[in-house]
Write a structure and sequence with these properties.
With about 450 residues, the chain is α+β, with helices and mostly antiparallel strands. The protein is about 60% helix and about 15% strand. It has one domain: Up-down Bundle (Outer membrane efflux proteins (OEP)), CATH 1.20.1600. A hairpin with a 6-residue loop joins strand 1 and strand 2. The longest helix has about 70 residues. The protein is elongated and about 140 Å long. It starts with a strand and ends in an 11-residue tail after the last helix.
Length: about 450
């Protein structure tokens, strides 16, 4: 669907619509924020996984100078002046804690973290779909305004030629009194339309430049010569509704429910004890001090000890634990309460978008038929004017009808293309063609 090109910044570089969408992905502030939220969720998932394997493994080490101390409790130093030399000292401590069984709390937190990543990724996908739709709508708008501008310029030129011809032959031909006035009013109306189209085109180009990060006021020239209807096969409505499960907002809701279920399970597990293995090593050395081997003498400067033990941690804050569980349940049922309504709302969105597509397709067919008839009328009016210049009113009426049907035809193509893009946006991805059974 996105298969046209744009010229930017007065160079020969042309961007396909897909390339413009990629630029929007890179320059959209909301998308950048969503990408960072995904990275934050991934980091939280890493933290949850790390909680299962040695969540506490630390080494503390200190060093400094301590006074000399030689001897022991039975042979104290003979020096009683208190003035001693200084020597180096170091103490290091390694400690660890390894959970053994938490009654499902750690596994629940891991599931919640994983679902949280899925939520943020679905939110990012939803914003990317919206950015692609916005760029596509602006892109087709520029094509539309360019076609309308060419149409107004062409009609204006032809009517001005007729006006010059009438002024040259005003003594040779007999015109109805209202003919010149009708011609002038038609030209004034075209001039007004030209100004409106030019202003809307400038605003659309500026919006596309802002969305895609192109320089402001840079000329954007499209590679396509005119706006053409997209050749896309649209599946039946029932099949489109079956595709609704790929919608990012639906995936985000489901992942959110999974995350909150896991958090509820973690809140339940908090009632149970946590069994863990803990231990560590302690080492200290001070060469200028005598190592004390008496078990009743505490020596923090020369030691080596360690051990491993089995631990159990049980929380008795029942009221706080209950409040946490109630909060987790409330958040879970908050999402589950909108699940059924969200499914119905998605089906309604798809039905509405599909109806807009059918309406646009019928409108485009009608506009094409009206365009064909107005061209035939204009051709006959020109022939009559060449035979009898007094038929200038008929010619102007034919021009007005031609201008109206041409504008409606180009607008119908724009509406049709945008309806297809909106249908893809509502479905949640590219349309899948379904072959009809023979």
């Amino acid at each position: 669907m996105w298969a046209t090109a744009v010229l930017a910044d007065r160079t020969d570089t042309k961007y396909s619509l897909q390339a413009l969408i990629e630029r929007a992905y890179e320059n959209d502030a909301e998308l950048a924020g969503s990408e960072w939220r995904v990275k934050g969720a991934v980091a939280r998932q890493r933290q949850a996984r790390a909680g299962s394997l040695l969540p506490r493994l630390r080494l503390n080490s200190i060093a400094g100078l301590v006074p000399d101390a030689k001897g022991d409790i039975f042979n104290p130093p003979s020096d009683t002046t208190g003035i001693r030399g200084l020597g180096p000292f170091n103490q290091s401590e390694l400690e660890f804690v390894q959970p053994l069984y938490t009654f499902g709390q750690l596994s629940s937190l891991r599931r919640a973290a994983k679902a949280g990543v899925d939520v943020e990724r679905a939110a990012l996908a939803d914003k990317r779909l919206q950015a692609a739709f916005d760029v596509g709508q602006l892109y087709y708008g520029i094509l539309l305004f360019r076609d309308l501008s060419d149409l107004v310029q062409r009609l204006t030129g032809e009517l001005e030629d007729k006006q010059d011809e009438i002024e040259r032959k005003q003594d040779e031909i007999v015109l109805p009194l209202s003919g010149p006035f009708k011609l002038r009013l038609a030209l004034l109306d075209l001039e007004k339309q030209r100004a409106q189209v030019a202003e809307r085109s400038r605003l659309t180009i500026a919006a596309l430049a802002l969305k895609t990060g192109l320089p402001e006021d840079s000329p954007i020239e499209l590679a396509e010569e005119r706006l053409l209807p997209l050749a896309t096969v649209v599946p039946a409505l029932e099949h489109l509704q079956n595709l609704a499960q790929q919608r990012p907002d639906w995936r985000m809701l489901n992942s959110g429910i999974l995350a909150r279920k896991a958090l509820r399970d973690a809140a339940k597990s908090a009632y149970y004890p946590q069994i863990f293995l803990a231990g560590g090593l302690r080492y200290a050395v001070a060469p200028n001090r005598t190592d004390q081997h008496n078990p009743f003498v505490k020596d923090e400067f020369n030691l080596f000890s360690g051990g491993v033990f089995l631990g159990l941690r049980q929380s008795f804050e029942w009221d706080m634990l209950g409040a946490g569980l109630d909060k987790a349940r409330a958040e879970l049922f908050e999402l589950k309460s909108i699940e059924a309504m969200a499914a119905r709302g998605i089906r309604l969105d798809i039905r509405r978008a599909y109806g807009k597509y059918e309406e646009a397709a019928i409108g485009m067919a009608s506009a094409e038929e009206a365009r064909h008839l107005s061209r035939q009328w204009l051709r006959l009016a020109r022939d009559e004017y060449e035979f009898d210049p007094g038929q200038i009113k008929e010619l102007i009426s034919a021009f007005e009808s031609f201008a109206k049907t041409e504008q409606e035809y180009h607008q119908s193509i724009f509406d049709y293309n945008v309806s297809l893009a909106r249908l893809e946006r509502v479905v949640g991805g590219p349309l899948v063609a379904v072959k009809e059974e023979e």
